[in-house]
Structures are given as structure tokens and as C-alpha cells.
Adenosylmethionine-8-amino-7-oxononanoate aminotransferase
Amino acid sequence: MSNIAQLKADNGQYQWHPMAHPAAMKKTRPDIVARGEGCWIWDVDGHKLLDGVGGLWASNLGHSATAVRDAIVAQLDELPFYNTFRGTSHPRAIELSARLVKLMEPDGVASVMFSSGGSDAVETALKLARQYHKLRGEKDRFKFISLRQGYHGVHFGGMSVNGNTNFRRAYEPLLPGCFHIDTPWLYRNPFTDDPLELGEICAELLEREIVFQGPDTVAAFIAEPVQGAGGVIVPPANYWPLVRKICDKHGVLLIADEVVTGFGRTGHLFGTRLWGQGGGIRADLWCLAKGISSGYVPLGATAISSKVAQVFNDDKTGQAAVGHGYTYSAHPVGAAAALATLDEIERLDVPGNAGRVGAVMQARLRKLAQSCSFVGDVRGVGLMLGIEMVQDKALRTPMPRSSDIPARVAKEAYQRGLMVRISGPNLILSPPLVISQTEVDHLCDTLEASFAAVEASL
Ligand code: PLP
């Protein structure tokens, strides 16, 4: 067996993949990505593809950001690892925390707590939210409310607030006290086609749930500023401002899961800055990962507002020590990668590029909803876009899970040199944020041709 054939065989034999059936992987021909440069990747067979997935919403600077690579190598020479437990620290952790707080000062951020990825950042936020209320003497506030279709990672807390049954069922019973409400999803809701009316109705659903549970039992509401894995669902413009008001009214913390939207993907540095007037919505806790280090080294962070930080800082109960943290919290190599990433985000105006070329991508691909018989909805903002495939367009009948059409579109795209991601009936695009206009044109040309090819074969 050649080396490549061996790799393909061993993949399913020895490795269990996230979100995949282990036995099915033994039969599946894997897409083995062997090399990356700029916004492009090559599989082990030498086939060149435009990376429409951005690694997994992560490779925002593409695959050959020299500045990030150099910072990583320098850090490996200087100090490959040290912990940040209790009184211990290292220079990169300190520099990165100061840098992030400065960056998020307009959002009301006072401090940051590091971890190793998005699920960790969510878990940290959920735990800090409970501790915040305990420190304030509101010991019964332990419940979490979240959105259907939301995705918050795979730890038990995150899984419990996830809004998709597929991510929950096999691991139940989950964390007690987690409740889900309808997401403001314009394409699929039983209420209205008017976005602002939908924003109001769905915000009211949050208030009704808080009141039903008893406001003095609810710790936090957690949501993504734009839902990613759930199919790129963009809420109406009034939703987050209304949610902020409702949370304030009932003393409920607002956690913004910015693991996907953070660091430029929506065309703004943070997704919360998309919403509200005059600089965005101030959450109480933010979950950050992926784009923080452009995926070069795993890193997560939970940003803490001054409102939350003050309660910990001023504590008189003696219970404010944070009994949480990971061996690799603020890993020096991850922190060095993040510092260099932040330099590059600023130098290249990454959010600006995402906004500009993203608008072109959105405008072009939205036309698929008119031109293709099995595309029901195309939605997104900046460089995140979801294409929902349906069985019956007029009736908006969901594409059955058994349908092979989404996979066929992805295969056509792959053969034409574009990597895309399929999640249920949705094709999801999240290319690197440094993608050029020419590359976006190529992406759109390829995808249009792929949909047309599948349509012609039906
Ligand atoms: N939160 C959101 C919004 C995500 O999209 C993800 C991952 O895609 C996570 C949390 C979990 O991040 P990780 O996979 O790094 O644990």
C-alpha cells in the first residue's frame, strides 16, 4: 500500500472523528487535508481547493500567516509551556489579557480568563455566571436559558444549553435547569414574516420564560450574536437590544457566545457590535476562541464585564476564588499566536475586508434561492453564509435527513476545487477573512456550477 492509501485506510481504522459514526468512517473516503497556503488547501492526492470552511470557522488569516508562524516559533524557543494557576503567570498571558481588555474596553470588558477552546470558554462563562449570583446572595439563580438551533460546544454545560437535539440525546441526562426558547428565525417560525415583529415576539418569549421560571432562579441567557453551526441564522436588528433590556430588567446575565462571530467574521470586530445603536450591545460575559489565534494554536477566552468583575473584586464572603481553570489556560504558544493574530487583524483591517467582500458573496449567492429549485433560503452576514436546501420550496418542507442532495452538492464543489461544510440540510461557508475579491468570485462561480450540476442530475 502506498503511504496515501495507508493514510486513508488508517483514518477510519484508528481514529474516531467528532460528530461522526465510528463504523461509518471505516467506509467513508476521507478528505485528508495535507497542506495549506493563503486561502487554499491541498488534499493528500494533490487536489487544490479554496478553503470555504476556514478550517472550521477558525483560520481567519488563512494558512500561511508568517507573522503568526514566527511568533509561535519564537515562543517555542523562549518558553514552550507554563501554567497560569494561582500566583503563576508568564509574559504572553499578561500581554494578551491587557491587549484583549483594551480591545474590548468599548464593550465594557474589565478582565479576561483563558482556556483552551470554545467549549472551555462557554463552560467558564456558565460557571462564572452562577458564581456571580451566589456572591451577590442570590443563591437560587442557577438556571440557563438559550436558543433552539444554538451551538455552544460539547462540554456538559455547553451541551445542556445547545439547541439541537442531535448534540444532546446520546448524553442525557444533562445539566438540570436549562431551558430553550424559539430562535428569531425569519425563514422558519410560526409567527410572522416581518423581521421586527419577529424580533419583538422572540424577545417576549425570553421574558415569558424568565417570568415562568421565576426571575430569581435564572442565572443567564446565552446566545450567539449570529447563530453559526445551527445554519447561520441572523436575528432581526431589534432582537439583541430587546434581549439586553429584558435581561437587565430581571437581573439575568447576558452571555454572548462569540466563538464564531468574534474577531471580524461578521464585518465587525465582535458580533455584539452588529446590534444596537452606537457601538453594539454590551454583554456581561463573552466566549471567545477560534479566530482569537486564527486556529494556529488552540486557545479560548472568556471576557468579563466590569459589572461582573466588580462583584468578584469587591467580594466580602470569601467565596470569590474562581475554582475553575485548565492546565493549558493561556498556553504561552497560543497566547503568542493570538498576540500576532491581533496585530494582523489590525494591520490588514480584517473586519473591513470581511464586510466588503462578504457583502459581494452574500449578494451573489442569495440569488441561488431564486435560481435553484432545492434552495429554500440563503442567509448570513459578512463572511458567514448558510444555504438551506429544502424538499419543497413553495411549502418550505425541510430536506429529509436521508437526502443525499447536500452531500452531492459538496462533492461537486470539492471536485471543482472548493471545500464546503454540510450541516444537516445547510451548506455553510466561512472562508478565511483575508480572502480576496478574486477568490470570492471563484468561490461563487464554483458553488453556482455545483448547484447547477446537481439540479441538472435530478
Ligand atoms: N460556541 C460556538 C458558537 C461554536 O461555534 C463552537 C464551535 O464551533 C463552540 C462554542 C465550541 O468550540 P470548540 O469546538 O473550540 O470547543
In short: The first helix runs from residue 3 to 14. The first strand starts at residue 33 and ends at 37. The CA atoms of residues 87 and 433 lie 37 Å apart. The chain is about 40% helix and 15% strand.
